[in-house]
Amino acid sequence: MDSNIQFYEPEDAYGFLSNFYQSPINIDGQIWPTSEHYYQAQKFVDPNIYAKIQHCGTPDSAFALSRQYESEARRDWMEIRLDIMRFIVAEKFKQNPLLAFKLIETGNATLTEHSHKDAFWGDGEDGQGDNHLGKILMAVREQIQSTEPYNLIQFVDKAKLPTKWGTFEMHGFIERETGKEHLALVYGDISSVDAPLIRLHSECLTGDALFSTRCDCGFQLDRALQNITDEGAGVLLYLRQEGRGIGLLNKIRAYHLQDKGADTVEANEQLGFAADMRDYRFCRGILSYLGIDTVRLMTNNPRKVKALEQANIVIKDRVPLQEGINTNNQFYLETKAAKLGHLFDRQFIKQ
């Protein structure tokens, strides 16, 4: 990351830092297309001028209109303008999570509005300006860096992932608390869906990649991806939580105990672990990054429902995912129902 990031035009690489960048902001029920619209309107007490600026088609026209009425600006404007700018820039990032994550991704770089026109908000092009906008952005960055959901995950990169079900966009994240790497497989235009279909799928090497039939994980993964593509839009979070959080090698030890007669819960407990060690709090960070706050959740596990609800994710609907029962995993599934509360139809679990 560059130690000094300069921005100016909204179309540039760091254009999202500009007040001219299109990002809707709701203030007391009124929608402002950009922070520039809001800032320029606050110069006036005349409601007609205020409304004209609010409804300007572009931030450039909002800026120009405020100059046209400059003689009618409120008398205390020079004293309050910094506070107005601090407020609206903070709201811009608070209300647009993706922009907030992008702001955090600038790290500790110095942010500078590189403007040849403005030596108050920018650097005056020669670097001698006050750069007040850059300073406000850095203050907002410092504030949100330590708050949820922005401190939960770090976005790394994204790439296309062609599969037998269709082509997904694969997003990579690092869970800040543990350093674990997680994926979000995004299919279709999730912004066009009020409550996209999603699945939180914990990694299961034996089931997902080695085709084990002693669990239902691989079968569920296959069905979840098919359901998402059939739906036209959705997300599968692939979470590095092998063995309900105990890890791959401990999972092998647990399997050995199950071979001797223990059930899946007893095996974990005999190894000194809780029945389920997984923590889903960080998923809020991934979903926030993707702009998701309401979902239809594919799961049989009530803990996942509760975890997302506690993370302020609205569960519009729980979609059962009952796949892959066979003679090798029937006792395992019965144990999950009896001891972990998993929600299976009686007909499914007894077939």
Automatic annotation (TrEMBL):
NCBIfam families according to UniProt: PRK00393.1, ribA, ribofla_fusion
Swiss-Prot/TrEMBL catalytic activity: GTP + 4 H2O = 2,5-diamino-6-hydroxy-4-(5-phosphoribosylamino)-pyrimidine + formate + 2 phosphate + 3 H(+); 5-amino-6-(5-phospho-D-ribosylamino)uracil + H2O = 5,6-diaminouracil + D-ribose 5-phosphate; 2,5-diamino-6-hydroxy-4-(5-phosphoribosylamino)-pyrimidine + H2O = 2,5,6-triamino-4-hydroxypyrimidine + D-ribose 5-phosphate
Taxonomic classification: Bacteria, Pseudomonadati, Pseudomonadota, Gammaproteobacteria, Vibrionales
Domain GTP cyclohydrolase II: 158-320
Any GO CC annotation of this UniProt entry: cytosol
One Gene Ontology biological process: riboflavin biosynthetic process
InterPro entries, A to Z: GTP_cyclohydro_II, NADAR, RibA, RibA-like_sf, YbiA-like_sf
GO terms for MF: GTP binding; GTP cyclohydrolase II activity; zinc ion binding
Family classification: Belongs to the GTP cyclohydrolase II family.
The protein's annotated pathway: Cofactor biosynthesis; riboflavin biosynthesis; 5-amino-6-(D-ribitylamino)uracil from GTP: step 1/4
CDD domains cross-referenced by the UniProt entry: GTP_cyclohydro2, NADAR
Positions annotated to bind Zn(2+): 204, 215, 217
Isomerase keyword on record: no
Function: Catalyzes the conversion of GTP to 2,5-diamino-6-ribosylamino-4(3H)-pyrimidinone 5'-phosphate (DARP), formate and pyrophosphate.
EC number(s) recorded for this UniProt protein: 3.5.4.25
Cofactor binding summary note: Binds 1 zinc ion per subunit.
Needed cofactors: Zn(2+)
Protein name, as recorded: GTP cyclohydrolase-2
Active site: 276, 278
